[in-house]
Amino acid sequence: MPEDSFQGTVVDTVPASNVFLVIGIPGSGKSSVSEELARRFPLGAHIEGDHVQDLIVSGGHLPSPEEDREADRQLLLRARNATVLARSFHAAGVVPVIDDVVVRRAHLTFYQEHMKDLPLRLIVLAPTPETAGNRIAARDKKLADDWAFLDEALRSELEGEGTWIDSTHLTLTETVDKILGAG
């Protein structure tokens, strides 16, 4: 193959129809739902907030209940980088599906401001905190046992935003079907 085989290749095409932001507390099913949702499109990409955070290999600060300004800064950096990827995929005709733990108004507003000119569809996965806790316990991830405080923040600060789905009694397929039917 000649060296110039990429010359003239256009990366950006007709923009994708949607950009999805799937949010909820840990254990709400964001990653599983987002991956399955992205697979439903001819061209779909799953952008996992945790994986974006993992790109920081030195000096990373994860969010915690204690005040940590550096963790807050990195949380917004992670959101900004996820939106940069989403913009790139969207421009290339690939439907991006971002998943992230977003429970505070300021965090959601940050995402919305960075994607204000995109066809954003906000999906809030809101199973009961007990269901989320059971899902976490069934995985290898070691996280706090009680996420009720995050659920309370999500419900009080983000009420009325986006499409809310209580996936407590829904299968993965039923949840994704519900998202696609809500459009």
TrEMBL record:
<protein>
    <submittedName>
        <fullName>AAA family ATPase</fullName>
    </submittedName>
</protein>
<dbReference type="Pfam" id="PF13238">
    <property type="entry name" value="AAA_18"/>
</dbReference>
<dbReference type="InterPro" id="IPR027417">
    <property type="entry name" value="P-loop_NTPase"/>
</dbReference>
